[in-house]
């Protein structure tokens, strides 16, 4: 399987494994290869939607992992809101950052993060790749959007700090992302390398401010971005930049915690530099942990990366001291998580129960606008027309969204359809017949066809209710316009309440 001779017990090999945060397949049993690599030095694993069925099942799975190493870091990408892994099949019980930023109550943000942290801890998870500390400076951003607290740097900074404080109070480490900022991009780094072409003063006052706040709040990890910021480094994206990770984050900001990369299988890195090569460059630049497993999740991937690090050290390309320092930082975070004040597994058996704070927050985040043609709330089974864009890779296409389920619960017989592209409005009108229409959109301002579909519906049927579940950048339209600022399950529930009450 590997052409490089390695020795499982030697320090170099253990350090090479320690910097990896791989994923694996399965929901019931930890694969034997994962157990073996933990014994050989692997200090972290990551969970994704494919590993999740129920909270109880995840707790049982992490208990198996802890049996191999009690201070193992178990990471997950649980931003809540649109990006959820723990509730990938149902939608999140918590609204995302944009909704919390709209409410602008840092106490609420802290309480939501603490509640989510308790739920993660109850599942045996101790590292969350969240929150997004990105300032949503570009309304056309295809990947951040509602994952950001907003477009005001000061607002984003104070809510990032509140989130860090809340989650870490539950013993779950946060990872503020995506350093040095992914908000002012029009390209998704899952596909290629975005460029943030602004001067250093703008970066300082806008993009970097929330990361300073996260560090001041004590975030245990910071996640790098695969973005090119020429004012900081004209040659290398953040994840591969020594100027950014070591010079700026470590030396200028004085940050001493873990630096973890964004997914290294993303095309911004793997498609440009090569997967193994990119991982070596990231550690050399100052990263400590390699996030992988969102795509590749097999033993061969772990062995290839392990061997790439060993070979880079032996060739002199990667200083052995740098790899050892990175591995030590991973182990230090694992030690913090193991000794944190979070309750033990036996004590937190009931900790995963829904407190209801997520729905409270989602209700507070709503903006309801009555149009000139408003006549009455929906009082009987409507037709729900969902206008669906291509899924955001970070969000995925597994998680349900919208208001159909909630309206069906209230009005049995509710009918629905999903439409996209040119002519979507006419298609929805034909499908709806004479039923009252509830049109559900996501970032209508970014999709010309979607905005046109809404105009078509409202022109033909002035009593149409519009639910915007993305960034509410466009002017309100419809008899009743409801902005939820996210597509979490609780956002849909809050919207449904507003639809039936007017």
Task: Characterize the structure shown.
By secondary structure, the chain is of the alpha/beta class. Helices cover 40% and strands 11% of the residues. It is built from 18 helices and 14 strands. The protein has a 6-stranded parallel sheet with strand order 2-3-4-5-6-7. Strands 9-14-13-12-10-11 form a 6-stranded mixed sheet, sandwiched between helices. Strand 10 (383-387), helix 15 (404-410) and strand 11 form a beta-alpha-beta unit. Helix 11 packs across helix 12 and helix 16 runs parallel beside helix 17 (448-460). The protein is globular, with a radius of gyration of 23 Å.
The strand count comes to: 14
Instruction: Tell me the helix content.
Output: 40-55%
- Placed side by side, the strands forming the largest sheet appear as 2-3-4-5-6-7
Largest sheet: 6 strands, parallel
What coarse outline follows from CA principal-axis ratios?
globular
Radius of gyration based on Cα positions:
23 Å
Distance between the termini: 63 Å
Any chance you could write out the topology, listing elements then pairs?
Blueprint: H1 11-18, E1 20-21, H2 32-40, E2 44-47, H3 55-68, E3 73-76, H4 97-103, H5 106-122, E4 127-128, H6 153-168, E5 173-179, H7 200-207, H8 209-216, E6 221-224, H9 242-252, E7 258-260, H10 267-270, H11 275-285, E8 290-291, H12 299-315, H13 320-339, H14 357-365, E9 367-370, E10 383-387, H15 404-410, E11 415-419, H16 424-432, E12 437-441, H17 448-460, E13 465-468, E14 480-483, H18 489-501
Parallel strand pairs: 1-8, 2-3, 3-4, 4-5, 5-6, 6-7, 10-11, 10-12, 12-13, 13-14
Antiparallel strand pairs: 9-14
């Amino acid at each position: 399987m590997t052409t490089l001779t390695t020795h499982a017990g030697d320090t170099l090999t253990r350090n090479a494994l320690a910097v990896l945060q791989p994923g694996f397949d399965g929901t019931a049993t930890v694969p034997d290869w994962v157990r073996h690599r933990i014994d050989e030095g692997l200090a972290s694993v990551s969970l994704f939607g494919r590993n999740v069925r129920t909270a109880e099942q995840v707790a049982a799975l992490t208990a198996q992992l802890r049996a191999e190493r009690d201070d193992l870091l178990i990471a997950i990408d649980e931003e809540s809101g649109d990006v959820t892994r723990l509730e990938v099949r149902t939608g999140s019980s918590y609204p995302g950052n944009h909704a919390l930023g709209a409410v602008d109550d840092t106490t609420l943000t802290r309480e939501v993060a603490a509640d989510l942290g308790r739920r993660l801890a109850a599942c045996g998870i101790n590292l969350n790749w969240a929150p997004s500390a990105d300032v949503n400076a570009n309304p056309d951003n295809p990947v951040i959007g509602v994952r950001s607290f907003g477009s005001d740097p000061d607002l984003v900074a104070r809510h990032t700090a509140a989130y860090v404080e809340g989650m870490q109070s539950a013993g779950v480490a946060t990872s503020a992302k995506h350093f040095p900022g992914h908000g002012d991009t029009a390209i998704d780094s899952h596909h290629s390398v975005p460029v943030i072409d602004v001067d250093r003063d703008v970066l300082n006052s806008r993009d970097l401010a929330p990361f300073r706040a996260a560090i001041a709040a004590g975030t245990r990890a910071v996640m790098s971005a695969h973005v090119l910021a020429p004012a900081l480094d004209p040659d290398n994206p953040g994840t591969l930049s020594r100027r950014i990770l070591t010079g700026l984050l470590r030396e200028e900001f004085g940050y001493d915690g873990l630096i973890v990369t964004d997914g290294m299988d993303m095309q911004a890195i793997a498609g440009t530099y090569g997967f193994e090569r990119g991982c070596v460059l990231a550690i050399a630049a100052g990263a400590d942990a390699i996030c992988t497993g969102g795509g590749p999740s097999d033993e061969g991937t772990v062995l290839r990366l392990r061997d790439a690090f060993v070979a880079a050290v032996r060739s002199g390309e990667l200083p052995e001291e740098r790899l050892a320092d990175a591995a030590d930082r991973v182990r230090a975070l694992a030690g913090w998580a193991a000794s944190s004040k979070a309750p033990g597994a036996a004590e937190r058996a009931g900790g995963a129960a829904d407190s209801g704070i997520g729905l409270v927050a989602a209700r507070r985040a709503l903006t309801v606008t009555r149009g000139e043609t408003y006549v009455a709330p929906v009082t009987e089974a409507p037709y729900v027309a969902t206008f669906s864009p291509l899924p955001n890779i970070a969000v995925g296409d597994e998680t349900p969204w919208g208001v159909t389920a909630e309206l069906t619960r209230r009005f049995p017989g509710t009918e629905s359809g999903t439409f996209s592209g040119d002519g979507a409005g006419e298609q929805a009108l034909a499908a709806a017949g004479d039923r009252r229409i509830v049109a559900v959109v996501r970032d209508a301002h970014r999709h010309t066809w979607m905005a046109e579909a809404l105009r078509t519906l409202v022109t033909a049927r002035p009593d149409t209710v519009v639910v915007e579940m993305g960034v509410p950048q466009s002017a309100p339209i419809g008899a009743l316009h409801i902005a939820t600022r996210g597509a979490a399950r609780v956002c849909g529930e809050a919207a449904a309440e507003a639809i039936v009450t007017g």
